[in-house]
Amino acid sequence: MLTYSVRRVLSLIPVLFGMTIVVFSIIHAIPGNPAQIILGQRATKEAIATLTKQLGLDKPWYIQYFHYLNSLLHGDLGTSLRTRGPINQEIWPYLAATAELAVAAMLIAVIIGVNAGIISAWFSKSWFDYIAMVLALIGVSMPIFWLGLMEQWGFSIHLGWFPTTGREDVRDPVSAITNFYLIDTLLNGRYDQFIVVLKHLVLPSCALATIPMAIIARMTRATMIEVMKSDFIRTARAKGLRMFWVVYKHSLKNAVIPVLTVIGLQTGLLLGGAILTETIFGWPGIGRYLYDAIGYRDYPVIQSGILLIAAIFVLINFIVDLLYVIVDPRIKYSK
Amino acid sequence: MTKTLKWLLISILAVSMFLVGCGSKTNGTAGSKKTAPKKDTLVFARGGDSTSLDPITTTEGETFKVTQNIFETLLTYGKQDTTIHPGLAKSWTVSPDGLTYTFKLQQGVKFQDGTDFNADAVVFNFDRWMNGDSDKFPYYTMFGGYKKDAGHVIKEVKAVDANTVQFVLKRSQAPFLKNLAMSPFGIASPTAVQKWGDKFREHPVGTGPFKFVEWKQNDHITLEKNPDYWQKGLPKLNKVIFRVIPDNTARLNALANGEVDLMDGLNNSDEATVKSNSNLQVIERPSMNVGYLAFTVTRKPFDNKLVRQALNMAVDKKSIIQSFYGGQAIPAKNPMPPSIEGYNDAVQEYPYDLDKAKQLLVQAGYPKGFTMDLWAMPVARPYMPEAQKVAEVIQESFSKIGVKANIKTVDWATYLDKAAKGQFDAFMLGWTGDNGDADNFLYTLLDKDSIGSNNYSYYSNDQLHNILIQAQTESDQTKRNDLYKQAQVIIHDDAPWIPLVHSTPLLAATKDLTGYVPHPTGSEVLSNVEFK
User: Fold this and answer.
1) Do A187 and A276 have their domain in common?
2) How far apart are alpha carbons B248 and B270 in whole angstroms?
3) Which of B84, B119, B208, B238 could potentially form a cystine with B159 if both were Cys, beta carbons 3.0 to 4.6 Å apart?
């Protein structure tokens, strides 16, 4: 297990290295001069030339890449061309905002998705099954833009339960420590703010949860149906074990591996793919940070941001791999 | 089996009760709307964040919306136009040759860090800017370049005494006073600039009615009342918070829900919704922009004036405005809006006349028409909220005179890049004025000097060039206006563009908000805003 972990960690290095090359080349293949974009429509020729030079964009791409890699190894993600702030510091609040949202969404997706899948499998071909699977189908094909606006319209404007947008009440802002506001409010002892922050989290996380929830439900149902056809389940039932335990203990344990894989992949996707949710709910997350950066051709931010998200993606899947061993002792990673 | 099912249902019920419980628990404390705190805080929601809070370091409007309240300029614009009024300078004189400007400064003004505002501070700021470059201080090019450049118009800025500052110019620059009133030239505290260095963009200190408190990037910027503000009784608000909500509809939802008090970027299609809500009001920002369709006049067949004139007659601006601007725009006939001094109202707009357009095409030697690419902007701008759809309307009417237009688009960065390189046949674009001067439209967008920067149509006319240059050095405003009127006649005849619209951007606010007067430049001081 330990050797496996170490080996996996080491194998991340070429993956990350490869990622830097891919990210770098994709961006440089796109037409458009970043200097023109940064200076905007009002730029003069000279200004563009000066800035191009200053940013090192006139140098050959491999030299730019080498510089980039060099500072990356020194833990320096570079400076944003747009805001001129160090990306190291700038990116953290965005990352934390997205992580908080993604974790909340994943919790909802897993709890509801897994249970819906199990019950659908248990009572397959029942009305519950049909309804749940139709809902799941709607869930995967739901445009988040529309769903988000409908949520705001229904739950905020009409029912007044939740705020429409943002992470906090800006009139009484959270003083950030970790930038995970749920944690920060507790650290500050502001339990009233904790509730406010929680309320802000509800609508966007529900919107963000729909697609993974649906995918997880369908996956769980499919594997559970498979498992529940197997002999040991029949045996368990034959010896008079309660159906609940047969389903939730014996079957689930054997069906969990593919579900876990899907959960891992979906969590990774949420981190980078929350742009729509972040836009609709005015959530200051990494997706919007990157989206803005792309519009401005903010090369350093695009590179660092994508690299970071990719790294987290790889990391989550690494954790999922380790979890396999815990949930299924038959899997052994020692040689 | 039935027993387990029962248990299962019970547990599901329990979970859902718990979830509902979460909901209703929060319901009790639910927000701002019901508790209604004493209203002296304005939350202003907008689509994008500022990139810097040091206004001179950017050209981007979202920055000025905020910094306009932290910093003040020597001169200011009129409430809703671009006439010149006193600001930090209470009066000024201009020498007869138009080369020496002497400003008397307001006395007893302090920066928000407690240091004194005086002539030395003004000199310090101009020295800082003119020693920079276009990357650091992009808008300083309004003064013809930087100290090292030949075109720089300011010879020196000197403090005559503590409250008098004098600008000596190398050659006269007609829009000089208007330039001084632009947001980027807000006077910063020299002490703070020296203290923070490059970080001043995150720690702005000026003399304005509000001082900076907090900036959470892409989320909100908080300003609070400057208690020592020199204009007594102002500002009326205690706090101003600028919030970022990128989506226009979501922003309106937040306004309807009481989370914000004022929003810009109201969709024209949502105007009716706002008007029907008794808690909300619609506010119009006067236009200082133009949306246009430009021809790259170096490309065939657009090198032919008759072709350009023909196409000018084939666009039904009125129906475009009705369909895509919700009526909130006026049809354009000149490259600048009527709010700008020197606007030539005598210019006759090309009529929407397809028969005449066809005749002109025959005259030009294209009796069967031709095929062209029509590029539509990929982004929404106040002057062009739905470029694709407008392009489709234009495509339709062009087809009626035998011109087949293929609509194309590409991402915004590439779009500007290609347009600047003259690679488009025809393209849609627009401009929002910087300093409210005619020069900022006509010279910037259509003079031959501007080819390669903002003259994307590659239009070049020496007669026009001479007029525009003459107008730049003419200090008599009436004479200048005449020159610009002549210029507009020439441009109209050469028709390098189809000027489409001057749009009126819409804002929405809660009903109890008063004293908010939106300025055509896009940024305004909020010191008179209050809640009823």
Assistant:
1) yes
2) 9
3) B119
pLDDT tens digit at each of 532 positions of chain B: 455 555 655 665 555 544 444 443 333 333 444 455 568 999 999 988 888 999 998 877 889 999 999 999 999 998 888 888 999 999 999 998 889 999 999 999 999 999 999 999 999 999 999 998 877 888 888 888 888 888 889 999 999 999 999 999 998 888 899 999 999 999 999 999 999 988 899 999 999 999 999 999 989 999 999 999 999 898 999 999 999 998 889 999 999 999 999 999 888 888 889 999 999 999 998 889 999 999 999 998 999 999 999 999 999 999 999 888 877 888 999 999 988 889 999 999 999 999 999 999 999 999 999 999 999 988 778 788 888 999 999 999 999 999 999 999 987 778 887 888 889 999 999 998 888 889 989 998 999 888 877 889 999 999 999 999 999 888 788 899 999 999 999 999 999 999 999 998 889 999 999 999 999 888 899 999 999 8
Q: Are residues A284 and A247 in the same domain?
A: yes
**Same-domain status, A95 and A192:** yes
State the Cα–Cα distance between residues A7 and A18, nearest whole angstrom.
17
User: ipTM of the predicted structure?
Assistant: 0.85
Q: What is the CATH number of the domain that holds A188?
A: 1.10.3720.10
**How far apart are the CA of A328 and the nearest CA of chain B, in angstroms?**
25
- Which amino acid, B218? N
Cβ(B242)–Cβ(B214) below 8 Å:
no
Which domain-ending residue is among A28, A47, A73?
A: A73
Instruction: Note whether B23 contacts A: Cβ–Cβ < 8 A.
Output: yes
CA B335 to chain centre: 16
CA nearest to B335, candidates B420, B251, B445: B445
Answer whether A316's CB lies under 8 Å from A264's CB: yes
Domain with A40, as residue range(s), is 2-73
* B31, B201, B454: residue with CB nearest A169: B31
- Residue A164 has its nearest CB partner, among B250, B413, B416, at B250
Q: Do A45 and B452 touch (CB under 8 A)?
A: yes
Q: Which pair of tokens denotes residue A130?
A: 């049909």
Count of structural domains within chain A: 2
Q: CATH second-level architecture of B289-503?
A: Roll (3.10)
* B210-286+506-531, CATH topology level: D-Maltodextrin-Binding Protein; domain 2 (3.40.190)
Do domains B71-190 and B210-286+506-531 share one topology? The answer is: yes
For the CA atoms of A87, A90, A91, A93, the dihedral, rounded to the nearest 10 degrees, stands at 170
Q: Which residue of B22, B26, B135 is in closest CB contact with A51?
A: B135
Q: Which of B139, B443, B453, B531 to mutate to test the interface with A (most CBs of A within 10 A)?
A: B453
Phi, psi of B333 (to 5 degrees): -120, -20
Assigned superfamily of B71-190 = Periplasmic binding protein-like II (3.40.190.10)
Residue A39: inside a domain, yes or no? yes
CA atoms of A322 and B54, how far apart (whole Å): 49
